[in-house]
From TrEMBL:
Name of the protein in question: Putative Glutamyl-tRNA synthetase, class Ic
Lineage: Bacteria, Pseudomonadati, Pseudomonadota, Alphaproteobacteria, Hyphomicrobiales
GO molecular function per UniProt: ATP binding; glutamate-tRNA ligase activity
Organism of derivation: Pseudorhizobium banfieldiae
UniProt record similarity statement: Belongs to the class-I aminoacyl-tRNA synthetase family.
Pfam family, one: tRNA-synt_1c
UniProt KW Nucleotide-binding keyword: yes
Amino acid sequence: MLAPPGQRPVFRFAPSPNGPLHLGHALSAILNHEMAQAVGGRFLLRIEDIDLARCTPDHEEAIYRDLAWLGLRWEQPVRRQSEHFGDYGAALDRLREMELVYPAFMTRGDVKSAVAAHEAAGEVWPRDPDGSPLYPDADRKRSETERRRLLAEGSRHAWRLDMAGALARVARPLTWRETGEGCEEEMQADPAAWGDVILSRSDAPSSYHLSVVVDDALQGITHVVRGVDLYHATSVHRLLQELLGLPEPVYHHHRLILGPDGRKLSKSEQSTGLAALRAAGASPADIRRRIGL
Ligand code: GLU
């Protein structure tokens, strides 16, 4: 895996402190660490805590303990996203100046009812790669006067990307370089499959997609190594990078660790939590064996 010429490769593990790390996180963190070491690169840790309601300092402390126990070492200071909302706001402002974002007033419940009404009439509502319904176009089509009125009234809203408008602004085809599963390929990005993605939440002044793209650029990340559950999200990330003029990292999507039910592990499932396994007497070597390293 090669970094752009003259640049020391930079890898990152970017967990959200909203629950205990499990075996899947161990795989991701160790792979990043080892790939960085193998190419003389840097290994960064980033705390993705924009969800202030669910992320806690206790979970963050637990992340440091678990990773240190696994034998990983990372550079200081650790970037904590909640301390950088200004950076994400600046990126949102750029997209706003390009007239590619609009205020979105529908709640999750509103979307659900709109979709249910549509499907009751026998029509199929399009879904994104994660299975969620695409955001309806009512807010995008709203007049400027109406938008201003709703904003002035203080109506709760998020900010969404006008996907069609955004696609019209970037050169096609949009691709990324993927090195996962031993292959090195140019992948076709398909951001349209996600519809008008959220860029700033109603309860936080950013979103996963926006913060991850801004931070990967600000931290000079050359290699994004993460679970294959985020494979399709890469399409959105590539689009945002193009719109914002940000560099394009190499992507490596790795296998997931599945539970006995064949589903990906969840933070609420205690039996595969690293701290719980440690308390039950497991060693770092046991963890490596369990995740097939
Ligand atoms: N914070 C994300 C997670 O915990 C990972 C983001 C990424 O690696 O791009 O799933």
